[in-house]
Amino acid sequence: MTDCIFCQIVEGKIPSTKVYQDDVCIAFMDIQPLTRGHVLVIPRSHAGGLADLPPQTGGHLFQVGQKIAKAMRKSSLKAEGINFFLADGKVAFQTVFHVHLHVIPRTEGDGFGLKFGAEYGKPPERSELERTAGQIQEALGK
Ligand code: AMP
Ligand code: ZN
Questions:
Q1: pLDDT, tens digit, for every residue of 32-51?
Q2: 30 CA to middle of ligand 1, Å?
Q3: Whose Cα sits closest to atom 18 in ligand 1?
């Protein structure tokens, strides 16, 4: 995909700072890090979103994320924790439509946070959880 910036990174057409690569994926520094050390892991083959990503490749991406997370904890970055984040779809904050796993090293007081919706803190009734689970289960069977 010539108009995809992450494909261009895979092809070496635009600069990137890589931390890891193998036959299936590459990992490089995010140009706008959420915390110091923020890395993106991407498949070499273009997949716009999760639905396009072969499950085996997804599994491999996660394993590479684990490897990098371990290195971040061991490294002089001294990560005390790690967040994985994957945005699938515009509403989920995906801005680059080539699947990527964010690996975000965390340290106390790094300033990174999550914003919750207005309904958070008002747990739904069990019946509501069951109704919602039913909607997902029904689709899983399709
Ligand atoms: P997302 O919102 O999950 O789609 O995240 C896209 C991420 O890609 C953002 O964190 C960007 O800072 C990052 N990004 C965009 N262009 C580049 C690039 N050329 N090199 C490294 N990271 C990039
Ligand atoms: Zn791509």
A1: 999 999 999 999 999 999 99
A2: 6
A3: 31
Q: Can you tell me the distance from the alpha carbon of 3 to that of 23, in angstroms, rounded to the nearest whole number?
A: 22
Q: How far is the CA of 47 from the centre of ligand 2 (A)?
A: 6
CB 53 within 8 A of CB 99: yes
pLDDT at 108 (0 to 100)? 97
pTM of the model: 0.96
Q: Could you give the residue ranges of the DSSP H alpha helices within the chain? A: 5-10, 55-74, 126-140
**Helix and strand numbers, DSSP H then E, in the chain:** 3, 5
* CA distances from residue 98 to 12, 22, 60, 85 in whole angstroms, order as listed: 16, 17, 16, 14
Residue 100 catalytic?
Answer: yes
pLDDT tens digits for range 82-123: 999 999 999 999 999 999 999 999 999 999 999 999 989 999
C-alpha 99 – ligand 1 centre gap (Å): 11
Instruction: Catalytic residue, from 38, 60, 100, 102: name it.
Output: 100
Residue recorded with tokens 């991406």: 61
Say if residue 1's pLDDT is above 70: no
Using an 8 Å Cβ cutoff, are 16 and 9 in contact? Answer: yes
